[in-house]
Write a structure and sequence with these properties.
The chain is an alpha/beta fold. It has one domain (3-201): 3-Layer(aba) Sandwich (Rossmann fold), CATH 3.40.50. 34% of the residues lie in helices and 23% in strands. α3 packs across α4 (63-70) and α7 (134-143) runs parallel beside α8. The radius of gyration is 16 Å and the shape is globular.
């Protein structure tokens, strides 16, 4: 990614310049304390065939992609925040960690032309991208999936990205909404849920 070409994400606009380091320190502390940080990865691992090629879109410090790597998958993680990618490289060797703008994602240009079996967008990725680019992000993720590949996206329903808009963006990206849950451990979805985990499929 050429930084000057990227739209300003909500991650940048809604937080101060020290937020990335706070986030890095927080997850390092949680890992050291033995917190369960693998819930998203467990779900994706249960859905994906062994040795799947998985895109961790908006990977942050790499906790989800690193767990999928430990479970035998081939992981490429992407985030627009160079500080978070630096932390992922330091803390989780193994996967490929790349700085890139999800709204303009073209991994072939970055040396990764092979399509993915699955993608995961955890940690409120979609509400943190640049306003108005959520549909572009979904379209670029879809473009990197093989036919019949899937993506799982989770975010808080109070984060400013309405589910009605999300569902319209799913359709526009050429994806199908297969399932929706209220948590990453698959508690049933209700309209009162404060979190939405959606399983999306790329048609054959």
């Amino acid at each position: 990614m050429v930084s000057g070409m990227a739209d300003k994400t909500r991650w940048v606009s809604e937080h101060g310049p020290d937020h990335s380091q706070w986030y890095i320190d927080r997850f390092r502390r949680l890992a050291a304390e033995g917190a369960d940080l693998a819930g998203e990865a467990r779900l994706v691992d249960a859905m994906a065939p062994p040795r799947s090629r998985i895109l961790d879109a908006g990977c942050g410090t790499g906790r989800v992609g690193a767990e999928l790597d430990r479970r035998g998958h081939r992981v490429v993680g992407v985030d627009a925040d160079a500080a978070l990618i630096a932390a992922a490289l330091a803390d989780h060797p193994g996967p490929s960690w790349l700085v890139a703008d999800l709204a303009r994602l073209d991994l072939a240009d970055l040396g990764h032309p092979e399509l993915f079996d699955a993608a995961v967008l955890a940690g409120n990725v979609l509400p943190f991208v640049a306003p108005g680019t959520e549909g572009q992000v979904l379209a670029r993720v879809a473009a990197h999936l093989r036919p019949d590949g899937f993506a799982v996206a989770g975010f808080g329903t109070d984060r400013g990205y309405e589910l009605a808009g999300f569902d319209a963006d799913i359709d526009a990206a050429g994806l199908l909404l297969e399932h929706r849950f209220a948590t990453w451990d698959l508690r049933p979805w209700t309209d009162a849920a404060e979190f939405a985990v959606s399983v999306l499929r790329k048609p054959l």
